[in-house]
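Memo to structure team: turn this sequence into structure tokens by end of day. - J.P.
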Amino acid sequence: MDISLIIKVAGVGMLVAVVTQILSKAGRDEQAMLVSIAGIVVVLLFLMREIGSLFDTIKSVFGV
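Reply from structure team:
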């Protein structure tokens, strides 16, 4: 795992938190929830390669 991946995930988290707070204060709770869901999807897309390599490692360890 590379440190840049951790920094990307933290950056997306901070950006989503700020935008969500701004939208919530403006009374746009529905858009705030959509921004939160979009942030989760973006982070999962970042982590997809790492999750794939984790499953490959598990397969090789257990010989499946």
